[in-house]
Amino acid sequence: MAADTIILAPHLLPLALKAADGSNAGSTDFRASLSPLLSAGHPEIADARAFLGDLTECRRTLLKALKTTDATPQAVDDSLRAYMAKIHHLMLPPTGAPPVGSDAGPPWRGSCVGAAVAVAWRDVVWERRGRDERKGGQEVARGDARLEVASVLLSVAMWKASKAAATAGGGGRGEGADSAVVAQARQLYREAAGIIQHLLDTHVEGLGRPTAGDLDENVLAGLHKFVLAEAESFTVLRAIEKGNVPSLVAAISMDVFQLYARAFNCLQRAAAPAAEVLEDPTVDLGKQARSSAHGIGVKGWAGYCRKVGGYTRYKAACFKAYMLAYHALDRSQGTQGGAAVRLAQEASKTVQTATNLGREYDSLLPHTSELQRQAFSRSLQDRVKQIDVQCEKDNATVHLQRVPEKLPDPPAAKQLVSAVDYSFPLFDPSVDHSLFSCFDLSRAPDVVVDVAGDGGKDGGQKTAAWWRWLLVILAFPVIVVASLLGMLIWIVLLPVKIFCCPLGFAAQMMWDVTEWLIKAPAYLALWAAGKPWQPEKRDVRAMASGGVEEGSPST
């Protein structure tokens, strides 16, 4: 094999693409939604409408490019820059002027036109527990321009990660990738990490509820570590193929192992907050290696987050095996033959654990084939086996040392990959911000928006009306009497339901009626307050399974 070619994992996880909710990617029309706020007769009204039309077109162009990985990274970057530079104007007070510098603080500070924008985005990675996945639905996050900006940035970051996987993965054939392809994929992963870091630092704060679907801080932190690990995994494989010193390979592999393991832990905090979060992966590696491959609880997670979690755990095990093997080779080339044998034995055990985790990862939806990771797995197994045999031979013929029971300390991690910083674009200089003075924010609908909404038809909370409370006050005595009567009937029906099975069906119907009568006062109060009668249902069985299972991120 040529020195500039490395064997990659052809199953590099192409993250699912995040899309806006609607029949097509550009369903949001800023001109239609914000035109009612324009003051009639204002001299800037024509320019304002033209700006809203341009903004809508920029959004459609960007989201169309993000629907597949066919577009070029440069085209996506240009579309993102154009859209962000325009929508940035919606984040300022209508009478304000755009600041000269790029650091203007949170763009949604104060009253702004963007607060009147209504958008909806599909949550891809994170889904609520207990959702019926057979329906094929996904949670929908609804909000204003703050949610729009954050969701667009996350969508671009996930697109870059998916594009990198498609570029370097060989189309699932397990082919090698040369230096140019690897460099392009590595750069895309680094850019994705920079965008996600920018989201965590700037845009997530102030979105509303702590858990906001894909914009949950734990989900973003997990994705950030995931893309960094993917980028640095190329460095490890290239160092192995070029024959770099074992100490360097072990140190970089240790960092990749930690990144994958911490990505798993972050996703676990979002998907199964009741589950035990493991200690730092550099502590007690032997205990982690002996953990059950099926006792960590990924199968109890919901949605696509489960697939990403299974992948990060599998890759953590693979690079832990690389770390142990090359740490063993480094010790063997020194004077610690016994410790080298112990590390090589542990690396072989970890390879077997990685094999089990790979099969579990393949079984998670959406299913993947073992053939897609065959080349990567075979390369890992061959190299670990080769190092194991070499360490055994060197110790038996040269070092003649006893193999210790305790696993030697792991190497210090060495990180050679960092995120590419992302800067929010400056305001579009072609837009005169004075045109926003024609927007009358007092006309904006008073809607309570929930960025972590469940995707229902009602985008806001219902408010109570005075006439409802008046009816409740007038009818409450009658309802209370009916409730007491229902309690008496309930007591009478109880023996019939228990001891007279032939009358069970009829008794059950009467039972349901009386139960409704008993709860009638509460139903009436909820109706008057504008609250729903049915609370949100949660799958407590899934929550319980996530809380009792334990294990490690890598094994």
From TrEMBL:
It holds the Pfam family BRO1. InterPro entries: BRO1_dom, BRO1_sf, BROX. Residues 11-419 form the BRO1 domain. Gene3D superfamilies: alix/aip1 like domains. Keywords: Membrane, Transmembrane, Transmembrane helix. The chain crosses the membrane at residues 466-493. The keyword DNA damage does not apply. Belongs to the BROX family. This is BRO1 domain-containing protein. It comes from Ostreobium quekettii. The lineage of its organism: Eukaryota, Viridiplantae, Chlorophyta, core chlorophytes, Ulvophyceae.
